[in-house]
């Protein structure tokens, strides 16, 4: 299996540190609002790669953090007049709902930055002791980039180039030694959460958080570090500088980065009015459609999001579901057990599509070609199954389809649609709960219905609902 390593800019054979095991860290979201579809791409892509590693027999320790202390979280808390922890707790819960809707497996560990402050203080002190960091008079601790000889090796930038052409990313500070020295610890401001440290009360910088969480849960050297292309510089570059200076060891053997997501060929932004949360997409589509859309292109390629492309993904997914439903229907009616010689030959022939799927995934997680292999298997199923087929043959084809789709995070066995009467009964129960001021139960019913594809809307005339 080969991975394109951002560090070396070439495909490399994947060799884990420990045979049969993979240590993988994926940068998670900053939880100050509902996640958007740009956040969803790395979640989906690297969840799929994790699933494939597990399919190959690896035991994967998959760590993905939540950044739960940040300027954006603090600003949102001030805006709402609540504690910052209330904002982060709320949106971690909302993020997990969206992840479940996209069939993203829970990480082995989802560490929270605020629970790892002691480790951050310890690493910062180590960097100071080794001369890679210094405490300024105002209580800020900076990383001394000029001290780390290989700074820029991931982004393929050097300090001279940065000095000449990247003045926009130079961080100002009255007590800084160098223009690209970055913050490890920042002093407390009024109204912000803060922790005690040897340099006074304050909070960690963003970059140190991931270095510490990765070290704690995966060790000083890991197999794979992944995230969006936008994190290469400065976030991942700074992680390398901190981690390798502190440990004296290579931080990660392989670096994987997904490409940008554009909306109708434009960069996604609130100012352009083309900013979509995952929750907004869920009002129009089953989130499996969003997942399938994300996997329709190679993860390193830029991906354009549009209504037409989402419809194409929906139609493609329906083709797969239709083939699965046909197999389920035939299995329900089939009486014969064992495969005939002809069926054995046909089933063996269908193995070529599994081989193509594996070859695509072995080639730097090429989900686009893997999806094509699934479509070839679907076509084969449509051509070579009928009511005369044996149960064993139908079962094996169904298992093959379900297994390949499972690696992609697509569930071919769909839950039966709720009957209208069942929906109305739950709505009536919700109405009664609201009358009884049991708002927790009312919210629970709304969420249960949403998970089953039923969206409620409260109006003056009463509650309306629709399938989504």
Describe the protein in words.
The protein has 468 residues and is an alpha/beta fold. It is 47% helix and 15% strand. A four-stranded parallel sheet has the order 4-3-9-10, sandwiched between helices. A four-stranded antiparallel sheet has the order 5-6-7-8. Strands 12-11-13 form a three-stranded mixed sheet. Strand 5 and strand 6 form a beta hairpin. Helix 10 packs antiparallel against helix 13 and helix 14 runs antiparallel to helix 15. It is globular, with a radius of gyration of 25 Å. The relative contact order is 0.11.
Mean pLDDT: 92
Termini, distance in Å? Answer: 38 Å
User: Largest beta sheet, briefly?
Assistant: 4 strands, parallel
Q: Identify the overall geometry.
A: globular
Order of helices and strands: EEEHEHHHEEHEEHEHEEEHHEHHHHHHEE
* Radius of gyration, CA atoms, in whole angstroms: 25 Å
Q: Please list the strands of the largest sheet in the order they lie side by side.
A: 4-3-9-10
What topology emerges from the helices and strands here?
Elements: E1 2-5, E2 10-13, E3 21-26, H1 37-55, E4 59-64, H2 71-80, H3 84-101, H4 117-129, E5 133-135, E6 141-143, H5 159-165, E7 182-187, E8 202-204, H6 206-218, E9 222-228, H7 232-247, E10 252-258, E11 261-263, E12 266-267, H8 278-282, H9 287-294, E13 303-305, H10 307-333, H11 341-362, H12 367-384, H13 391-407, H14 420-435, H15 439-451, E14 454-459, E15 462-467
Parallel strand pairs: 3-4, 3-9, 9-10, 11-13
Antiparallel strand pairs: 1-2, 5-6, 6-7, 7-8, 11-12, 14-15
Helix pairs in contact: 2-3, 4-6, 4-7, 6-7, 9-10, 10-12, 10-13, 11-12, 11-13, 12-13, 14-15
């Amino acid at each position: 299996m080969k991975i394109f390593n951002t560090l070396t800019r070439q495909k490399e054979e994947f060799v884990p540190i420990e045979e049969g095991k993979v240590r993988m860290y994926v940068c998670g979201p900053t939880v100050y609002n509902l996640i958007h579809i740009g956040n969803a791409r790395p979640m989906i892509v690297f969840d799929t790669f994790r699933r494939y590693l597990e399919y190959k027999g690896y035991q994967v320790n998959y760590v993905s953090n939540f950044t739960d202390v940040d300027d954006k979280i603090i600003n949102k808390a001030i805006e709402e007049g609540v504690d910052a922890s209330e904002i982060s707790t709320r949106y971690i819960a909302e993020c997990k709902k969206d992840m479940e809707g996209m069939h993203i497996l829970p990480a082995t560990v989802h560490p929270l930055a605020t629970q790892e402050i002691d480790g951050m203080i310890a690493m910062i002190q180590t960097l100071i002791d080794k001369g890679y960091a210094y405490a300024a008079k105002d209580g800020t601790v900076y990383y001394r980039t000029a001290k780390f000889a290989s700074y820029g090796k991931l982004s393929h930038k050097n300090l001279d180039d940065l000095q000449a052409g990247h003045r926009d990313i130079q961080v100002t500070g009255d007590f800084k030694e160098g223009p690209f020295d970055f913050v490890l610890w920042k002093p407390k401001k009024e109204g912000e959460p803060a922790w005690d440290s040897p340099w006074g009360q304050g909070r960690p910088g963003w970059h140190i958080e991931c270095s510490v969480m990765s070290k704690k849960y995966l060790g000083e050297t890991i197999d794979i570090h992944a995230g969006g292309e936008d994190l290469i510089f400065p976030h991942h570059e700074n992680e390398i500088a901190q981690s390798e200076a502190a440990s004296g060891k290579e931080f990660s053997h392989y670096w994987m980065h997904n490409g940008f997501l554009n909306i109708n060929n434009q960069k996604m932004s609130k100012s352009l009015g083309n900013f979509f949360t995952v929750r907004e997409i869920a009002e129009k589509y089953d989130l499996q459609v969003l997942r399938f859309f994300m996997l329709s292109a190679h993860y390193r390629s830029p991906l354009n999001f549009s209504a037409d492309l989402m419809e194409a993904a929906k139609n493609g997914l329906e083709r797969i579901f239709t083939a699965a439903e046909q197999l389920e229907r035939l299995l329900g009616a089939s009486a014969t057990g064992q495969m005939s010689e002809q069926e054995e030959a046909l089933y063996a022939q269908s193995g070529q599509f599994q081989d193509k799927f594996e070859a695509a995934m072995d080639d730097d997680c090429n989900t686009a070609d893997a999806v094509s292999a699934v479509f070839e298997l679907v076509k084969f199923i449509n051509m070579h199954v009928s009511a005369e087929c044996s149960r064993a043959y139908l079962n094996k084809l169904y298992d093959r389809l379900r297994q390949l789709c499972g690696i992609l995070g697509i569930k071919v066995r769909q839950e039966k649609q709720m009957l209208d009467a069942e929906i109305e009964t739950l709505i009536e129960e919700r109405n009664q709960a609201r009358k009884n001021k049991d708002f927790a139960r009312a919210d629970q019913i709304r969420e249960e219905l949403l998970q089953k594809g039923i969206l409620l809307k409260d109006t003056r005339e009463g509650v309306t609902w629709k399938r989504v």
